[in-house]
Amino acid sequence: MAEATTELGFDPDALRAKYRQERDKRLRDDGNEQYIEVTGQFKHYVEDPYVEEALERQPLTDEVDIAIIGGGFGGLLAGARLREAGIGNIRMIEKGAEFGGTWYWNRYPGAACDIESYVYLPLLEETGYMPPKKYIDGADIMAYSQQIARHFNLYENVCFQTEVTEVRWDESISRWIIRTNRDDAMRARFVIMSNGPLNRPKLPGIPGIDSYKGHTFHTSRWDYDYTGGNANGGLDRLGDKRVGVIGTGATAVQCVPHLAEGAQHLYVFQRTPSSIDERNDRPTDHEWVNSLEPGWHQERMDNFNTLVSGGFAEKDLVNDGWTEIIRNLLFMVQLEKGSELTQEQLAEKMELADFQKMEQIRTRVDKIISDPAVAESLKPYYRQFCKRPCFHDDYLPTFNRDNVTLVNTDGRGVERITEKGVVANGEEYELDCIVFATGFEVGTGYSRRCGFETYGRGGESLTEHWSDGARTFHGMHIAGFPNCFQLGHVQSGFTANYPHALNEQAQHVAYIISQLNAGNHKVVEASADAEQAWVDTIIKLARVNEKFQADCTPGYYNNEGKPEERSLQDTNYGLGPVAFFKVLEDWREEGGLQGLELS
Predict the structure, then answer these.
(1) Number of neighbours of residue 594 by Cβ within 10 angstroms
(2) Domain boundaries, the chain
(3) Same fold, 2-36+203-279+351-436 and 63-200+442-598
(4) Tens digit of pLDDT for each residue in 377-387?
(5) I want to staple 380 with a disulfide (CB 3.0 to 4.6 A). Which of 62, 75, 275, 358 is the partner?
(6) Residue 558: its pLDDT value, please?
(7) For residue range 385-410, what is the model confidence (pLDDT) as tens digits?
């Protein structure tokens, strides 16, 4: 192993042991139960602080062909692809006051895309839009969402500031009845549910969280009345405030530098450090734009998706930190010329390429952080895709500021919250404000995350249907829930570039509805056999990534360190997004709507 250490510059066995040690100290018996639901006394954490004028309207009892629940990229893509298919009678239903989805809610200072804009933003060729820079700001993404809606005429018949409370199938009229917090009982022939995988804020169940007397808010409901400033920073009302941030994931990485600039003193409470790579943002090169040929956008999305999913491509079009591991792997494989690598050998090479990348990340910390102890606390010891990797040029330098204190809890997390502040490592930190950068619910039940229940044939609820785990056909259809489509990750193809997956699903749904209209079919649903076959496929393929997830440090990617407790069927398509998209494409080309029952 000394020979390998000399060649690689690190000891793989030592890193494996270090990764296990760091994972084990963070394992908790309560798993997902460590988070509390934002209801009751915590309901204000999900209220909309951005509404400028409350909408007043009469309850609706009318009928539309298609109701799309959710105004983020999923809903917008579904609406766009349906419009392209010539379908007109569509209603979008969105609890926010505008389109934008996650970019409507997440307006914290520094909010920006962490995947290249040219692959993250959908429908660029269709709308003729080109992002102004490589990593577009959140406000511009929200504005672009509205541009999509205008381009595809999705403002027509829209219901904003409307929260769905129940969706129920009425067998007598073959329609869905959609009830809302505005006393609506609107009818729809089809329902497309695009609620988003990260839409419901979560709070850590820290003892005493309800006893704190200071100011608090969640990053997805940023309180600019308290902080001052805007999405570009300038938080000028924090100059005399001691602020604490709980959470050090992707959101904290973007907002912490702005909080540090504004606050009298900032305390960052860390359980697990994020992986922080260079961002190297830059303006869009117009010479490059002029060189693009039709179809460039899909080609670039496919290229990125292939590389970050562990596949091979002759060239790396995006060429950034997301795709660097694969570049490292390709280099290692090239050194093995003339030999055919087995799957096990390829996995070993992938692990070494991952080690190599993460060593680079840790070395970067040492180069930036002046205090060696702080630097060591900020080093991530896990495989890169155990958590969402982050890319930022200002986050790490923030910890060199005199008014910033990193409170590293060495995996234990905050002990408790008092009337005056936060207790960590046995010490109380008195605070004027606590900012929860604690993310969104992922491992909780689907209906809880949606905020409403769905009732299919015979009044069976989706919660009941999924009581032993998710059950779908292709991740979108559910037996006993006719004319209903779900867009999301469950039993579907997971990719880091989520809008790409949503686009594939939206095209699939538009194809099916067009086929139904052409054949004059009124009702469609998955057959019980097709649903069971797909569930069996998901379970069988889930074993592919099980060991990787089990070895990861706890987080939402691996059910807070308990992947074995999540039903194997609640996961994604195990062969990855490229293979999943091919499954959908082949199914459409076959042309028989196999697995669906029509009437």
Answers:
(1) 10
(2) 2-36+203-279+351-436, 63-200+442-598
(3) yes
(4) 999 999 988 88
(5) 275
(6) 55
(7) 888 899 999 999 999 999 999 999 99
User: In Å, what is the CA distance from 410 to each residue of 15, 33, 175, 228, 424?
Assistant: 18, 20, 54, 33, 10
* Distance between CA atoms of residues 265 and 238, nearest Å: 9
pLDDT at 368 over 50: yes
278, two tokens: 């260079």
Structure tokens at 246: 């709980």
Q: Which of 113-127, 261-275, 330-344 has the lowest mean pLDDT?
A: 330-344
Q: What is the pLDDT of residue 330?
A: 67
Distance CA 243, CA 341 (A): 53
pLDDT in tens, 278-318: 999 999 999 999 999 999 999 999 999 999 887 888 889 99
For 230: left if phi > 0, alpha if psi spans -120 to 50, otherwise beta; the answer is beta
Is the domain 2-36+203-279+351-436 a CATH 3.40.50.620 member? no
Q: Is residue 43 pLDDT above 90, yes or no?
A: no
What does the mean pLDDT of the chain come to?
A: 90
Q: In terms of Cα–Cα distance, which of 36, 160, 179, 21 is closest to 99?
A: 160
* pLDDT above 70: residue 444: no
β 484-486/453-455 pair status = unpaired
**Cβ atoms < 10 Å from Cβ of 428:** 14
Distance CA 173, CA 225 (A): 49
* HSE-up (13 A, CA, CB side) for residue 394: 13
Report yes or no: 209 and 233 within 8 Å, Cβ to Cβ.
no
**Cβ count near 209 (within 10 Å):** 20
- Given a contact cutoff of 8 angstroms between Cβ atoms, the answer to whether 405 and 128 are in contact is no
Rounded-to-integer distance, Cα 513 and Cα 493, Å = 21
CATH of domain 63-200+442-598: 3.50.50.60
Amino acid at residue number 450: C
What global pTM score does this model have? 0.92
Taking CA atoms, 247 is separated from 42, 153, 336, 552, in Å, by 18, 39, 42, 18
* pLDDT of 341 strictly over 80: no
Percent of the chain's residues with pLDDT above 70: 89
- DSSP E strands: which ranges in 389-480? 390-391, 404-408, 416-417, 421-424, 427-430, 433-436, 453-455
Contacts of 141 (CB under 8 A, 6+ apart): 100, 103, 113, 121
Strand ranges inside 238-352, DSSP E: 242-246, 265-270, 276-277
- Of the candidates 412, 405, 415, 542, the one whose C-alpha atom is nearest the C-alpha of residue 469 is 542
Q: Is the pLDDT of residue 565 over 50?
A: no
Rounded Cα–Cα distance for residues 475 and 464 (Å): 17
> DSSP string of 454-516?
EE-GGG-BHHHHTTTS---BTTTBBTTBTTEEE-SSTTS---SSHHHHHHHHHHHHHHHHHHH
The per-residue pLDDT for 29 is 72
Enclosing H/E stretch for 252: helix 250-262
